[in-house]
């Protein structure tokens, strides 16, 4: 029968005064031995410690540092009331030269700021002067534009309302040349006075050699009317009467029937064509064009010699026109003894539009 395992228990030396054995465990192994309890020995009285006088400032410290701890330090600790980093009343490690440099930089920055501020004030003053001048120029331009519009409205009003030669001549271009044309036109189609209402279109016309405006005027009794106005000077404006009525030197149907051989300038539309007949049957010699006028469906066929100025000018004109139609004043002539019933010779491209920029009576041969 195996022996029961030994158990541990806490022994109180004062409480238990028995003679029971006590088992002491060895440091290694599982064997144990029984030893006799020793009687308690009297503890010797601890020797008295040398006490120093208490310090009020360090009452919380329980142990004073040894002398060797103080002697081992390289330098004496700083006074707690001395600011950190100060050595003998100045910042430690910061030379006086940096203070001087910083002060110089601050002074220079202040001077530069003052100079820039003064320059900025001068610049602002200059800009204000420029803006003021621009505003004055804009105001002057606005007044001039307003005066021009007012003048154009007055001229258009007088032109549309005119029903006599005396009333219309002061407001038309080239009055000396167009006066007999107006008189001739009014014999066939008398002028009817119209009541001007307002301008609906007012835009510049890209016509070299003058200052022109395209105008559309609304009337109270005759619908909208299209006009070309020339500006001479600030307020001198005149209406181009010939383009307003699309003046022709002769009635188109009568011209086709009578076939006069003298050259006349017609306002026509010209497009390339290939109708060759009679005296114009040689395509290697002639360039062919279809010729029409406004308000008529009857066409003529115009011919220009191949390589002539007229043929070259028309070819260049067609290149610039997306629809291949030239709106021009062309000098037409029926050839003497010609057999082609509708064939005419184009002697000259007078104007690349329906308006004379300069007076044609002064340079016509």
UniProtKB/TrEMBL annotation:
The chain crosses the membrane at residues 96-115. Residues 43-64 are annotated as: Disordered. Residues 48-58 have a biased composition (Basic and acidic residues). Keywords: Membrane, Transmembrane, Transmembrane helix. It comes from the Bacteria. This is Uncharacterized protein.
């Amino acid at each position: 029968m195996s022996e029961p395992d030994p158990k541990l228990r806490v022994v109180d030396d004062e409480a238990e005064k028995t003679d029971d054995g006590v088992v002491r465990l060895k440091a290694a192994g599982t064997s144990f031995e029984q030893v006799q309890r020793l009687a308690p020995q009297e503890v010797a009285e601890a020797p008295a410690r040398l006490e120093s006088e208490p310090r009020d400032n360090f009452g919380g410290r329980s142990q004073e540092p040894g002398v060797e701890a103080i002697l081992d330090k390289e330098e004496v600790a700083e006074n707690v009331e001395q600011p950190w980093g100060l050595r003998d009343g100045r910042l430690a490690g910061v030379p006086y030269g940096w203070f001087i440099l910083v002060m110089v930089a601050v002074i220079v920055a202040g001077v530069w700021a003052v100079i820039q501020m003064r320059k900025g004030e001068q610049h602002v003053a200059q800009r204000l002067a420029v803006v003021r001048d621009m505003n004055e120029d804009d105001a002057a331009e606005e007044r001039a534009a307003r005066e021009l519009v007012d003048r154009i409205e007055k001229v258009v009003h007088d032109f549309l309302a005119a029903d006599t030669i005396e009333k219309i001549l002061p407001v038309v271009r080239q009055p000396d040349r167009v006066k007999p044309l107006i008189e001739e036109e009014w014999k066939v189609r008398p002028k009817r006075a119209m009541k001007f209402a307002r301008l609906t279109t007012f835009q510049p016309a890209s016509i070299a050699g003058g200052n022109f405006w395209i105008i559309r005027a609304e009337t109270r009794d005759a619908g909208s009317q299209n006009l070309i106005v020339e500006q001479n000077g600030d307020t001198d404006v005149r209406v181009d009467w010939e383009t307003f009525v699309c003046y022709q030197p002769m009635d188109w149907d009568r011209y086709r029937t009578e076939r006069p051989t003298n050259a006349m300038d017609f306002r026509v539309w010209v497009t390339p064509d290939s109708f060759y007949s009679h005296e114009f049957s040689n395509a290697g010699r002639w360039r062919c064009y279809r010729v029409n006028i406004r308000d008529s469906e009857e066409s003529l066929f115009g011919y220009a010699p191949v390589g002539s100025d007229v043929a070259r000018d028309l070819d260049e004109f067609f290149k610039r026109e997306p629809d291949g139609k030239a709106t021009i004043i062309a000098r037409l002539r029926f050839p003497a003894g010609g057999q082609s019933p509708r064939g005419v010779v184009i002697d000259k491209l007078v104007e690349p539009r329906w308006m004379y920029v300069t007076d044609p009576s002064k340079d016509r041969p």
